[in-house]
Design brief:
Oligomer: single chain
Mean pLDDT: 89
Strand content: 25-35%
Order of helices and strands: EEEHEEEEEEEE
Amino acid sequence: MSGLPPCPACGSTYTYEDRDQFVCPECAHEWPQVAAAEENDARVIKDANGNPLTDGDTVAVIKDLKVKGSSSVVKVGTKVKNIRLVDGDHDIDCKIDGIGAMKLKSQFVKKA
């Protein structure tokens, strides 16, 4: 795998670099490399205190959270290890001991 992004126009994986642009040989679409780098850096997820989060971080819950569809509650101070950041409203995907797989909002956690 070359590590180059697929073509945004046709989805082809046969892109190549030409100076400061990427080029798709199948549809002849050209786009700047800078835009691809900014697209990856644009998504910065922050905790309740404003600290940036990354995949694999350990966080602590800052508020009692009811588990939807269950009578259990995630208590304040519960530490969650090895988080994974995802797109969407609930931007943290994790496993919590005693509860299982969950999605959390970053505004209800702080970096531990």
